[in-house]
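Submission checklist for the structure archive. All mandatory fields must be present; incomplete records are returned to the submitter.

[x] Identifier: Probable potassium transport system protein Kup
[x] Organism: Loigolactobacillus jiayinensis
[x] Residue count: 663
[x] Sequence attached
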Amino acid sequence: MQKSSLRNKLSVAGVLVTLGIVYGDIGTSPLYVMNAIVADAGGLQHATPDYIIGSISLIFWTLMLVTTVKYVLIALRADNNGEGGIFALYALVHKHARWLMIPALIGGAALLADGTLTPAVTVTSAVEGLKGQAFGHLVFSQDQTVVVFTTIIILLLLFMIQRFGTATIGKAFGPIMFLWFALIGVIGLANLLPNLEVLKALSPVYAIKTLFSPTNKAGIFILGSVFLATTGAEALYSDMGHVGKKNIYASWPFVYGMLTLSYFGQGAWLIRNYHSQAVTGFTNPFFQVIPANLKLFVIIVATLAAIIASQALITGSFTLVSEAVRLKILPRMLIKYPSTERGQIYIGSVNWLLCMVTIAVTLFFRTSEHMEAAYGLAITVTMLMTTLLLHAYLEQKINRLVALLIALFFGSVEVIFFIASVVKFAHGGYVTVLITCLILSVMAIWYYGNKIRDRHESEREYVSLLAYRNQLVELSADETVPLYATNLVYMAKMKPGHMIKRSMLYSILDKRPKRARVYWFVTVVITDDPYTLKYKVDMMDTKSVVNVTLYLGFRRNQWINVYIRQIIQDLMREGEIDYQPQRYTTIPDRHVGDFRFVVLRELLSPATNISNWERLIIGARIWLQNHTASPVQWFGLEFSDVTIEAVPLILGRRYHVKLKQIK
C-alpha cells in the first residue's frame, strides 16, 4: 500500500481535508457551550458582565492548556508511525509497565462511549436552531418531535456514507468547515467590536476570580460546562492517522482563532443585553448573535457543521477499534480500506452499532439541553487516562522530573474538570457511564480471557513440531494415502522450540491422515509498528514442512492466502520447495498448487478445571469470539478452501475418570 501523500506533506488540500475530518466536534462547541454557561447562571438576567468575562476566560485558557499545549504540542508528538489515539500511545509504552493496560482500557471505552453522544448533541443543537425558520413559504415546526425526527434522518444519512471512506468525506466536508469557521469568526468579531471590554478575558486572572466569585452560582461546577469547549481534543489526537500531524499543526491556529472570536462575540452580546428588556424568547446566545438577514444561511451551515462534528468521533472510533483489535483488546472485526489513502478505514459493525446507540440516545434525551447535561463526563476520564500514558511516554524522551511535572499539571487540571463533571451523573451522565462500562466489560473479557487461557493452558497441550517432522515427511511421500491438498495450511501459534498445539498434529496424523505435498504452519505476529509487512521462513531441513512467521503491523489486513502464495513463489525461485505444476488449470505456466486451510475452533471442554470466575470469563470470551468476525473472515480466507475443525479447550488440571469393568 502506498504511503498517503495527505499524511506525509503539508498542502492546501490536506488542510481542507483536516478541517473536514478532525475539527467537527471541537468546532461546533460554540453551538452549545455559552448556552450551558448562561444556564449555570440561572438565565440571561443573572449572567452579569463579570460572570461572562470570567467564563470566557475559562474557555479561552482551557482551549489553550488542554487542546493546544497538551494535545497539539505534546500528544501529537507521541505518534506511532503517524498513528494517534490512546491505543497507539499504549502500543508505544506498554513494554515498560503492564499496568498501563488498565488506563488504556478505561480511556478507550470512555472515548467510544463519548462517540455515541457527540453526534446526538451536535446535530440536535443545530436542528433546534431551525425552529420557526422560514424556507420560502414553508416554516420549520416548533415541535421538538419534528426536531428529533429530522435529527435521526440526518444521523442515518451520515452513518450510511461512512463506507465511502474519510478521504472522500473529508474532501466534501473540508470546504464546508472552512466556511463554518470563517462565518463564526466574522460574526463573533462583528459582535466583539462594540464591546472590547470582553478582551479582558484574555487574562487568566478573570478565570480564577470567577471560580470563587459569588456571581458564579455554580462554583467549581461551572467547569463542567466550560469543559464542553474542548471535548473534541481527544478525537483530534485519534484522527491524526487520517490526515497527518503537519496538517493539524497548520490548521489549528486558524481554528483556535475563529473559536476564540465566536466565544468572545457571544460574550460581548450577552454583556450588552444583560438587562435588556428587548430580548424576548431567548434560547441560545449562538443564534442570538447572528444578523437576521444571515440567520437562515448560518443555521443551515451550522447543521452541516454539526453533521461533520459527528464525523470526527466516528472516524476516531474506527481508528480506536482497529488498533484495539490488532492489540487483542477487542474481538476480531472486519476492517475495510475504502480508498488507497493510508489510514482510511471503515468498520461496518462499529459504524452501525454507533448508529443504533446514537439514535437511542437522541430518542432518550430528546433535547440538546438534556444532552448537554450528560455530555463531557466520559471524555474527562479519557483525558485523564491519556495523561497517564503520556507520562510513561515522556519518561522515555525527556528528563523524568520534567515528565512528572507535566503529568501532574495536566492531571490536576483534568481531575478538577472530572470533579466538576461528576455532578452531571444524575442529570444524564449515567447514560454515558453505562455505555462506558458495557464497552469496558467487553474489552476486559477479551483481554483478560486471553491472559487466563495462556496462564492455564497445560504444557501437555503443546508438542515439538520437530518430534513429528519425520512422520510428516513420510506421510507427504506416501502414495498409498490419497492426496488431501497440495498445500495444507494451519494457522498456528508457534512457541519457542517449535512448540505447537497437539491438536494440530492430531488433526493431520490421527483424525484421518491428511497427506499434502507441503505442510505450512503459519504464525501471525502483530507488531507495534502499524504498517510492518515482513515474513520469516524455517524450512526445518525439509522441502515439505515449513514454519512461517508473518510480521504484520496492527493496521495491516491479514490476507493470509495472498501472502502465502507470494511466499511459495519466493521459495520456489530459491529452490527451497519443489514446483507444483498443475495439469488442469486456466492459468498459463501455473507452478503453485491448490491450497486448503485448516482452522481449529476451540470449545471449552467439561474437563477444564479452573475457578468459577475464570470459567465465566473464558466462557464469555468464547461467546464473543463466536459472535464476531470468524477466523475465515479475519484471515481473509472467504474465497479459499477452508476446513474448520472443533477441538476441546482444556485449561488447568484435567479431571481423570476411570471406568470399572463389571464382571
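[x] Structure attached
Curator remark: The CA atoms of residues 330 and 443 lie 5 Å apart. Residues 1-5 have pLDDT under 50 and may be disordered.
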